Amino acid sequence: MRLKNPELFRQQCFVAGEWIAAKSGKTFEVYNPATGVSVGHVPVMGRDETRAAIAAAEAAWPAWRDLTARRRSRIVRRWYELIMENQEDL
Predict the structure, then answer these.
(1) Is 1 a member of any domain?
(2) How many domains does the chain have?
(3) pTM to 2 decimal places
């Protein structure tokens, strides 16, 4: 698999502002459903990682909630623009 921007493809999970692997080191293979070709591996996250992700989401919620609808809209719009700019790689 060749990407225009290889930095877009992380084989980790984003939790609390950091890319992390599973504590167990376990991963599972992900396949392109159209071709059956392996595209990479993702971590098998366990209970601890799941709880950390939930805690991070709960901690982030008040700041997100307090943003104006206009500001949240700009953030989501920028996310959409980044997806469109990188759609071939995604």
Answers:
(1) no
(2) 1
(3) 0.75
